[in-house]
Design goal:
The structure holds 3 protein chains of 3 kinds. Chain A is of the alpha+beta class. Chain A is built from 12 helices and 14 strands. Chain B has a 5-stranded mixed sheet with strand order 2-1-5-3-4, with helices on one face. Chain B is an alpha+beta fold. Classes of the chains: A alpha+beta, B alpha+beta, C alpha+beta.
């Protein structure tokens, strides 16, 4: 498994990155942790004549929690997320999810930006970002722009990002209430058979807000507004959970692969979602 | 052939400088160019961890890093952990507790474990199993690897306490 | 010497048999100083890489190598057309078939070798592979062995005569153009009659899916032809270096003395590294052509897709019994999918290996086994993945068959086993399918195991769980997996076991140095088993020199005596016996030297741990160290100087290790996720040489068994595409998915082995697979399940539960 040759760029700043992107268009790709892209290059399934390594670009990594607003730089690794005390306080679902991604070595290299921007339906962060209603901050030749995670994903490996744009950061309001990231996988290092991100707010005995997204059950992450709505205003009883699950099952569209046939994935999705809701409600 | 670039890195405390194609994988740099053959090639898709080295304080699978990315980096391999006259505690523990059989995963396993014990000096068995889950062994069934790492952790802690 | 050591202290100082000696291999492995094949670097070395077929069945219309040859750094591109004049475009397989080295007109499986690129480094070679243009014409693909036997599509045109008739294969007549052999053992007529007349008959089909040994190090070699002196050195990941030398000589025409095969450190084998692969042949040819060394190391995808799959057996069984559960007969028909070429690694006379051990640990009066080998568009192989030849399949078959019979009888499967075990006093026991079991005490082992796990308590807990499940209190079921296995290992007697005509003996040669240290060389090769540690222990006990003073060397055909290598748990039973026998030759000569030095008759001295003593006067003695020195510095009348011995050991029989395993598993009915709560393994491998190493072997073999039972498969789609080509999809468990195991043992020595040892490395795999599988099946038994096929991954378990109506 040997990659094809490429030209390597390691700019010191974003202007340098954008210059290469503008010059080479879709012949150029940015490299963050590389643990999705490099295997694809080694298998010669990704052709990248110009590779732009982002590691020297200042200001791309780091986590800030400021007045209830969380901002995570694109080059922040899963390992950074797991070890960040303020983030664990503000948005513990980030840590819970990150611990379920890949393995220790890969988490040292794997970044939020790579996980989010690659558009791989197997990645965990996109669904989580939709659940958190995160904002993606992109920069391109015409400057910065923001796009909501819920509007970002178009199809497998197809996103709203233009070829000459780079993801700078993700930002979201620190969630309140209960949370859960539940993932079924075959083994450490595998993508999800089904994974669910759930955030629930509780007012008295009643669910006052709900956000639910699932991963690897469609060619994009699935944030199901209907599933969340099914819980709001209820005591998250059996009937409400059934309704939420039914709504989610209406929104996902899994395909058959080595993890199993469609019927199984739909069943697993329902189970994982039920467990995630139960755990989130328990914590709310 | 793509043009070569000038690379400088520190490997096991020694400065290295050479010209290489950017696509050269770090594992090949270590093994073929620098004759550091402790790290091995097992799966090539970042699943098995046989190629694990420490780069700038992080455990990394060197089959999934281009040499260009490691330009300027500080790399430690199994060869940098101990010497024949003074083995690393983990090297001793793996010998003592039969933590290896064919030996192919061992350099990556010990290199990763050395970092794990920096992250968590006194891990539980569960923490060891979770923290070592990026390294595959086909021979031992892991039971004695876990035992070796726990023993090394206990010894390192005892030594640290004695020193304080 | 300051103080006289006691006998026990002297024995301890030797680190001989039975002690937990630390491994001598570990110093270099823990420091990254192993020497594996990919670590070998020779001056001027080139790299080989394959162009492989993307199709499972296709005709090759043309191959254009111009663009590849034009790439700077490419030295050669070999195709079948280049090998044909040398007669090397095909090679013989271990199973009496032949296999294309490079595609000769067509390809028969995805990943098949089409062209071999030789370049200055592996990067250029990989680039050149992309530049070789191959035009294919796709043909109909067959991936199902039953469909293959019905199909008009001819997979192997080379095996059909011009008039359309089918010449006999290596194992007799062929029934169809895609049929390889039929192998029959036992008494068909009586067995079928017994089954026809039986009070109770259980019947089922058991599929043992295709999987792969997948050692962490892939296969590879470095071929180095020295044109000046005409010698070829071949380094490689060979589990049988001497056999490889003979094969290379036979197919290349280079005389055997001009070939030196070296197996350096091997990063796990598990059967993957027994066979001869096209990569070896091409590398040798490339080195001969270029005159410089050529390295070839397969990548992980090539390893999983092309070299040495295991299993792929469809086993249909019928078992007859009385109403009380006494088994009266066993019938089995197996359809064996061998892929595009029959490259199974089995002794010549056994095209389905020792599948006829399938009567298991039970006293079954009559049995019949038939195996049909079939060609399909899958990779060749059929190696024994951590087992003796097809023994895993046989044990899986009988241990599933017993469970199904227990259901049919409505009887506890532990009790059913107990009443059918071969009794201690029946050994040596002649089985209905022709084997002579050497020794066993099954009842003792079984009782010990069931007591250790509180079997009755487990069944009570399980019954409660089922009630709770039915009452809606839990969604988790509990499975109790039982297995009692008997292996047949240590092939084997030359009278019935050979590979390519080479008798399956093994060997040891010992040289004692003047100062009382020694080197012993064997015909085997360790791949992690710790031979350098354990064989020295055998010798320490046999010749009375400390294990630490004995170097064990294997794997260099220029220095080691000829042997058939390490697989099928044969190292301890065969080479271990040779080691003991060679040690006894040393001792015999030492006795004469000692008698001379002590000035008594030979018969008046006896061996005592580390010395010879005068009988009745233990204060008069000569230590082995003193005797060694005397062997080199004294002129002893009638005795040659020196102290050396060699033994080529042809075992009188195989050995029959056995064991009792219990697995307790919780299963999430809704997600199909399994959790191994407890695993108890009792092994009886006869005399125990090093308990620490035995335990390590058990842990490892159980983990490979867990993998196979719960998810590890080589899966194909209908087009013959491999769906499990990387470690993302090919299941190798990590530390996180693996439990802690409890180990236990009984000791029933082999009566025919010099030290009573039977071999252990494969037992946990052979016994583990059915144990895990039985646990899954057992969990659903209360809901009407008889059998569900492996691998028991999440979706298949879910599907089982779903079919039983457990999802509401």
């Amino acid at each position: 498994m040997i990659p094809a040759a490429f030209e390597y760029h390691r700019p010191k700043d974003m202007a340098g990155v954008l210059a290469v992107l503008v010059e080479h268009g879709d012949e150029a790709r940015v490299l963050a942790g590389g643990h999705s892209l490099i295997p694809m290059m080694k298998l010669r399934m990704a052709d990248v004549p110009h590779l732009i390594d982002l590691q020297d670009v200042d200001g791309l990594s780091g986590i800030t929690v400021d007045g209830g607003r969380v901002r995570i730089g694109a080059m922040t690794t899963q390992s950074d997320i797991i070890g960040h005390a303020a983030l664990a306080e503000a948005a513990p679902i980030m840590r819970e999810a990150s611990l379920q991604i890949a393995d220790p070595q890969v988490r040292y290299m794997g970044t939020v930006g790579g996980n989010v921007a690659n558009g791989d339906p197997g990645n965990d962060m996109p669904g989580l970002m939709q659940c958190l209603d995160a904002t993606f901050i992109l920069v391109g030749p015409d400057g910065e722009r923001e796009v909501q995670a819920r509007d970002f994903y178009e199809a497998a490996y197809m996103t709203d990002r233009e070829d000459d744009e780079v993801l700078l950061a993700v930002a979201f309001d620190a969630p309140s209430g209960g949370y859960a990231y539940e993932k079924q996988k075959r083994k450490i290092g595998d993508y999800a058979t089904a994974a669910a991100a759930v955030l629930l707010e509780k007012n008295g005995d009643t669910c006052s807000a709900a956000s639910i997204a699932m991963t690897n059950l469609s060619d994009t992450p699935v944030w199901s507004e209907a599933a969340g709505n099914a819980l709001v205003g209820t005591s998250v009883d059996a009937a409400a959970i059934d309704a939420a699950v039914a709504a989610m099952l209406g929104d996902i569209d899994p395909t058959q692969d080595n993890r199993g046939p469609i019927e199984f994935k739909r069943h697993a999705a329902a189970m994982i979602l039920r467990r995630a809701i139960a755990r989130a409600w328990d914590r709310a | 052939m793509a043009k070569k670039m000038h690379i400088q890195m520190t490997v096991n405390g020694e400065e290295q400088e050479f010209l290489a194609e950017p696509r050269e994988l770090l594992i090949h740099t270590l093994r073929e160019r620098l004759n550091i053959t402790g790290p091995h090639i097992g799966c090539e898709t970042s699943h098995c961890g046989a190629c694990t080295v420490t780069i700038n304080g992080k455990s990394v699978k060197s089959c999934t890093m281009f040499v260009a990315q490691a330009n300027g980096a500080d790399v430690t391999t199994i060869e940098g952990l101990g010497s024949p006259d003074s083995l690393h505690v983990l090297q001793e523990a793996f010998k003592e507790h039969h933590g290896l059989q064919c030996g192919f995963c061992t350099p990556g396993m010990i290199t990763r474990a050395s970092k794990l014990l920096e992250e968590i000096p006194n891990p539980t068995e569960e923490e060891v199993r979770f923290g070592m889950a990026g390294n595959i062994c086909r021979c031992t069934g892991y039971q004695n690897i876990v035992k070796s790492i726990l023993a090394a952790a206990a010894e390192m802690s005892a030594a640290k306490e004695a020193a304080e | 010497m300051n103080k006289e050591l006691s006998r026990e202290e002297r024995a301890d100082a030797l680190s001989g048999m039975g002690c937990k000696r630390k491994r001598v291999e570990d110093a270099r492995f823990t420091q990254g100083k192993g020497n594996y094949v990919d670590d070998i670097k020779l001056p001027g070395m080139l790299f080989g890489d394959f162009v492989r077929s993307p199709y499972a069945h296709a005709r090759i219309k043309s191959i254009n190598t111009d663009a590849a040859m034009a790439l700077d750094g490419v030295v050669a591109v070999l195709t079948a057309a280049d090998l044909a004049p040398l007669g090397l475009h095909w090679m013989p397989t271990l199973a009496g078939d032949k296999q294309m080295v490079l595609a000769d007109g067509k390809v028969l499986f995805q990943g098949q070798e089409v062209a071999y690129v030789v370049a200055k480094d592996r990067y250029i070679a990989a680039d050149a592979v992309e530049l070789v243009e191959v035009e294919y014409e796709e043909l109909d693909v067959i991936v199902d062995p039953f469909a293959s036997l019905e199909s008009d599509v001819v997979l192997r045109e080379d095996l059909v005569a011009e008039d359309g008739s089918l010449p006999d294969g290596a194992h007799g007549p062929r029934k169809h153009h895609n049929h390889i052999f039929t192998w029959e053992v036992g008494d068909k007529e009586t067995t079928e009659q017994v089954i026809g007349d039986a009070e109770v008959v259980a019947e089922d089909m058991f599929y043992y899916h295709r999987t792969h040994p997948c050692p962490l190090e892939t296969c590879g070699c470095v071929a180095s032809m020295d044109k000046v002196n005409g010698k070829l050195t071949l380094y490689g990941t060979f589990q049988a270096p001497h056999a490889i030398r003979t094969v290379v000589s036979l197919i290349s025409g280079i005389e055997e003395h001009n070939i030196r095969v070296i197996s350096p450190d091997i990063g796990g084998g598990f059967g993957n590294k027994v066979g001869a692969y096209p990569g070896y042949v091409c590398s040798v040819v490339a080195s001969i052509v270029t005159g410089v060394p050529v390295k070839w190391v397969e990548d992980r995808m090539e390893n999983l897709m092309t070299t040495a799959f295991a299993r792929d057996y469809w086993m249909k069984g019928k078992i007859a019994a009385t109403k009380e559960g006494k088994i009266t007969g066993l019938w089995c028909h197996t359809t064996a999918d061998h892929g595009g070429f029959d490259a199974c690694a089995d002794p010549t006379k056994f095209p389905a290996g020792f599948m006829n051990i399938c009567t298991g640990s039970y006293d079954i009066p009559v049995a019949y086994l038939a195996v049909d080998g079939v060609y399909t568009n899958k990779a060749p192989g059929g190696v024994s993945y951590r087992c003796s030849f097809r023994v895993t399949e046989a044990v899986y078959f009988i241990e599933r068959m017993i469970e199904v019979l227990a259901i049919e009888l409505n009887m506890d499967p532990a009790e059913l086993r107990r009443i059918n075990f071969i009794k201690k006093e029946q050994f040596p026991y002649k089985s209905a399918l022709g084997w002579e079991y050497d020794s066993g005490d099954y009842h003792t082992a079984w009782d010990k195991a069931l007591e250790a796990v509180d079997y009755k308590g487990l069944r009570a807990e399980q019954a409660q769980r089922v009630e709770d499940f039915k009452a809606g209190k839990t969604r988790s079921l509990m499975g109790i997996g039982l297995t009692f296995f008997t292996e047949i290992v240590g092939a084997g007697p030359v009278k019935n076991c050979d590979i390519l005509g080479l008798g399956m003996f093994d060997s040891c040669e010992i040289r004692i140095h003047p100062t009382g240290s020694a080197i012993a060389r064997l015909g085997t090769i360790s791949q992690g088993q710790g031979h350098a540690t354990t064989f020295a222990q055998i010798l320490a006990t046999e010749i009375g020199l400390p294990a630490d003073s004995i170097t064990i060397e294997e794997g260099d055909t220029d220095t080691a005596p000829y042997g058939l290598g390490t697989y099928g748990s044969r190292s301890t039973p065969v080479a271990g016996a040779a080691t003991a026998m060679a040690g006894r030759k040393i001792r015999a000569k030492a006795q004469m030297i000692a008698a001379y030095l002590l000035e008594v008759h030979d018969d008046d001295v006896e061996f005592d741990v580390d010395r010879f003593v005068v009988k009745g006067a233990p204060e008069k003695f000569k230590t082995m160290k003193e005797i060694a020195f005397a062997a080199y510095n004294q002129a002893i009348p009638g005795i040659e100087p020196g102290l050396e011995a060699v033994s080529y050991y042809d075992p009188p029989n195989m050995t029959y290790p056995f064991g009792a395993y219990v697995c307790v598993m919780d299963i999430d009915v809704d997600t199909g996720v399994t959790d191994i709560r407890r695993f108890y393994a009792l092994d009886d491998c006869g005399t125990r040489i090093n308990p620490m190493i035995i335990e390590g072997q058990i842990h490892g073999g159980l983990t490979e068994a867990l993998a196979v039972a719960l998810g590890q498969e080589i899966a194909y789609d209908d087009m013959g595409n491999v769906k499990t080509g990387t470690l993302m999809d090919f299941f190798l468990p990590t530390a996180w998915e693996v439990p802690n195991y409890e180990t236990d043992h009984t000791v029933t020595p082999s009566p025919h082995h010099p030290i009573g040892a039977k071999g252990v490395g494969e037992s946990p795999h052979v016994g583990g697979v059915p144990c895990f599988s039985n646990a899954v099946n057992d969990a659903f038994k209360a809901f009407g399940l008889r059998h569900t096929h492996m691998p028991h991954d999440h979706w298949r378990i879910w599907q089982t539960a779903n079919k039983l109506g457990l999802h509401g």
